[in-house]
Design goal:
It comes from Dicaeum eximium. The chain has helices at 3-11, 57-72; strands at residues 19-20, 23-31, 34-42, 45-53, 85-86, 89-94, 101-110, 128-132, 135-139. Helix content is 18%, strand content 41%. It is of the alpha+beta class. The chain has a 4-stranded antiparallel β-sheet, with helices on one face. The chain has a 3-stranded antiparallel β-sheet with strand order 2-3-9, with no helix packed on it. A hairpin with a 2-residue loop joins strand 2 and strand 3.
Length: 140
Amino acid sequence: DMAEPIQQLTRNNNPQERQSIPFTLIQRKEKLGDLLYEKRQYGKAKWACIKMKEKQYEQSICLGFMKLMRYICEQNSSGLYLGITVPIVTIVHTNEAHSAMSQAVTVAYYLPEVLQEQPPHPFDSDIIIEEWPATIVYSR
């Protein structure tokens, strides 16, 4: 089921072809010279997002990522490989009291700069294109 997207990604897996999402570094936390995390602010932009709710948190992330990879690798209205942007963002949701994590996660892919104005439509109806306001992200 994932053979085509994986082959497409492998063919297009040159690090120089990965677009880093532009951000402003807010904070960098290190311990003994090792990076623990960065707090970043990303500007307003369009993202392809999918919300998943599997029994295990890890399953939700993996399945969401695989669906996004299909979108990136030609299962979109342009029929083209869209290119990889890094990082792929995972949003962890909490219950209404904000006291525990829920099983639901959102996995999101920043659309490359050239696609921001008119993003290709996904064939998978679970994937939605959202315009996010400026956003704070913790990255490791």
